[in-house]
Amino acid sequence: MVKSPSIMSETPQQNIHLMSDILASQVAAGEVVERPASVVKELVENSIDAGAHSIRVEVRRGGVSLIKVTDDGCGMSREDAALCLQRHATSKLVQVEDLFAIRQLGFRGEALPSIASVSHLSLTTRRSQDVEGWTLSCEGGVENPLMNAGCAPGTEISVSNLFFNTPVRRKFLKSDETEAGHVEHQVRLHALAFPEIRFIFVRDGQLVFDVPGTHDLRQRIADFVGRETAGQLMLIRPTEAPGVRVSGYLMPVSAARRNRRMQYVFLNGRPIEDQIINRAVRDGYGGFPPGLHPALFLYLEVEPALVDVNVHPAKREVRFRRPAEVTLAIMDAVAATLAAHARGEEQPTPQQLPQTAPVVSVSPVPLPQRKLDPVSPPVPRKEAAAPRPILELKPLVTPRQQELELPPAPVPVVQSVAPAPTVNLPNFRHIGTLHNQYAIFENKEGMVLMSPRAARERIIFERLQESHRHPLTSQRLLVPELLELDTRDMGIAKEISPQLEQAGFQVSPFGRNTLRLEAVPAILPLRKAADFVQELLRVFTSGEVKLVRNRSPFEHFARQLAKQYASQEDMDVYLRNPMPLLAALLECEIPYCSPGGKSTLLPFPMSELNRRFQS
Predict the structure, then answer these.
(1) 378 bridge partner residues
(2) 117, 182, 219, 542: which has the fewest C-beta neighbours closer than 10 Å?
């Protein structure tokens, strides 16, 4: 068949082409540079590989405005400095076989050019044997000529205006507080992995910590978690298997957390996250309470040929060639350590720690202060023409109130264990309980099931929502409680501090990573206030809660607060006498669903029941 001339004359179109070097580097930056902490990770790893004894990290505005990493490592020659910003340039891999014997932290050869493609980068370096050093600058991947410079031996890299040419990526960054918290956490990880190196961290011109190099791992841990926590450390007796060595410290079961913030796992000096290791640790403890995670500082040394560290762009995950041997080694090490601790062997105490403390300075961003009522019985939030004693969620006489010697609330309340007053709801009659979970009512239309937990969520949520018009009263704690937080959690705590303030909590900075809880909202009588706030922060930092458009920040906060509090309440009280709770629910603006959309009341009309049971 002969093709038509029109088709024959068409010019073929080329769809495949080679990307420019700058575009290729920006694509690679999408994998390597997720946030400022990713930049810090890559630069600090290069400093460690360069044999540095001291590393200084400085950031401004969470790292978006400036990241500066200075070390006293081996430095670079003129030829090396000229090549270091080229893609795939590396000093650590020469042949394919080197991929199976990786001992350095950084080896890909993409970090520096990827960072330079999305920022303004300047590099100054000098070897100790050279008389002068060299400086190089790059703006958005475009290099300027290499120039000589006078500088101290080592390398200094400054990254400023991160993501200036990729504004979409900058929009995905969190607040400066949150990003700075991630950067500080990254520096802490490296400081814990290499205690022999001095680490200095400066944030917005303020010295956050300066930890000197030490060969005592327990001292380095104490630098960050405090002497009291470090005093609970249980030394892991080094356990060896073919190609695997396990060491470090465990914390007792009493120090378990609701998240993995206190789980530090290092493989050949590299901070990693691995599900195989997590399961092995739990199995070594002989199981663990649901919802809790053990705290530990675990150091693994594995032959490079037995582990692949090149399976994740950010090198956070690894793949073991013989995972069973690694699992057994960890389980044996954890189990043996716990058994030795139970026998009273090797029990470190705070007195065993060196008495010298690291040079630490911090200037925390102050949280808003709330003017609190004196210690007295909470007053109703508002006075209505027709009083609704059942609907006002007045607090119980809890152990906390007994400690404060507060008199009981003047009106009988729903939460009290004592029999609640009879509520006149002519349309409803309580007829029973289903599986100790749901209350059963009957009315003229048929049968109704009520979920006490969902009902409590709705009631508490609407009371919190009313705080816009009627501020909630706070109840001061007789003894303020201290909350030890991770650096990332501190950033979140400062972000949601206005919502905490509006809801009736009062927290204030108390040291580097510690908050002092001074008061709680009167409508939420919390027995373990510190644990409640810790769990609230955990939910916000874990990403379990997502912000929703067209929803105020406080509505988002109140939704989670109501859910968490209702989940901790004893529902048996409401199941024994659910009428007051039902009355309170029916007075809500939206009584038929919880803030999360779950049903609070589920009706079964007689017409539907008759249709199903009668012919």
Answers:
(1) none
(2) 542
DSSP state for residue 470 in the 8-state scheme: S
How many degrees, rounded to 5, is the angle at CA 41 between CA 54 and CA 124? Answer: 55
Which stretch of 55-69, 203-217, 394-408, 565-579 has the lowest confidence by average pLDDT?
394-408
| N residues, the chain | 615
- Integer-rounded Cα Rg, in Å, for the chain is 30
Half-sphere exposure of 389 (CA within 13 A, CB side): 10
Could you tell me the two tokens for 338? 């716990």
More confident residue, 360 or 88: 88
Average pLDDT over residues 502-522: 79
CB 337 within 8 A of CB 285: no
CA-to-CA distance for 327 and 333, rounded, in angstroms? 10
CA-based end-to-end distance of the chain:
73
What would the DSSP string read from start to end of 56-85? Answer: EEEEEGGGTSEEEEEE-S----HHHHHHTT
State how far Cα 517 lies from the chain centre.
19
CB 344: neighbour CB atoms within 10 A? 7
User: What is the rounded CA–CA span in Å between residue 200 and residue 210?
Assistant: 4
Biggest CA pair distance of the chain: 102
pLDDT in tens, 104-119: 676 566 788 889 989 9
Per residue in 290-302, pLDDT (tens digit) is 778 889 999 999 8
Is the Cβ–Cβ distance between 166 and 117 less than 8 Å?
Answer: no
Say what the pLDDT of residue 14 is. Answer: 67
Q: Which one-letter DSSP state was computed for residue 540? A: H
Mean pLDDT, rounded, of the chain: 76
H or E element, residue 541: helix 529-541
